[in-house]
Amino acid sequence: MAEKTEKIRLALPDTRYQTARRSWDNSTIRRPLRAVLGQMAAGFETCMYCGESRGTDVDHFEPVARNPLRTFDWLNHLLACSGCNSHQKGERFPVDDDGDPLLIDPSSEDPFDHLLLTLSLGVYRPLTPKGQATIDVCGLNERGLPKGRMHARKVVGLALREWDRARARNRSDEMREQVQTVQDQPFADVCQSMLRQAFSPGADVVFSDSPDLLALLRRDDLRAALLR
User: CDD domains annotated for this entry (predicted)?
Assistant: First the structure.
């Protein structure tokens, strides 16, 4: 990838985009790159933007059209579904007045510094301008995603209660199975948000309909298993 980047750098500035695009389209590196990104992805290789669909594409976080020199930059590659890559985010890359990206980079930033998930509605609320831009560009509250997150919360709740029953029977194999169920499902952000909000100041309100679940989410052994 370094060699390909150098060839792009040596091209005339006004031809770098065409050179980069042609090199990427004809490159044999995309398939192994996608495979490595898939191994790093949550669940069954889910999209790093929406968290629902299976990631099929290698997305350039900073678009090739904006910065051709990052076409083969490992840190600029994210696993994305075709919907997010081609139709939702595409070439959109908003920046602030200083030219800094307004999109959250999930490979290097903690999304929860910029976003708050309303668990009862499955909807994200922005905490920062970067959070708002990410919601808008990635359509985080569109395409049926809130409904999917609400379903994910139910699945997590059922699995964690089964984990507790297995713990009471001292069935470690069943406990591991329930943890795996949570980790394999889409919307990994839902479980992560539940774990974090379990210790938030308003946790009793957030989990007012399921105090038993709140107690489970605060267990050190369960948290260690889910975050492993």
Answer: HNHc
Diameter of the chain measured on Cα atoms: 69
DSSP string, 162-205: HHHHHHHTT-HHHHHHHHHHHHHSS-HHHHHHHHHHTTSTTHHH
For residue 110, what are the domain limits?
94-143
Residues 109 and 54 in one domain: no
For residues 191 and 215, state if they share a domain: yes
Q: What is the pTM of this model?
A: 0.88
- The structure tokens listed for 31 are 């398939």
| 73 in the same domain as 36 | yes
Question: Model confidence over 207-225: pLDDT tens digits?
Answer: 999 999 999 999 999 999 9
Concatenate the DSSP letters of all residues of 100-143 into one string: -B-S--TTTS-GGGTEEEETTTTEEEESSHHHHHHHHHHTTT-T
Rounded to 5 degrees, φ, ψ at 195 are -65, -40
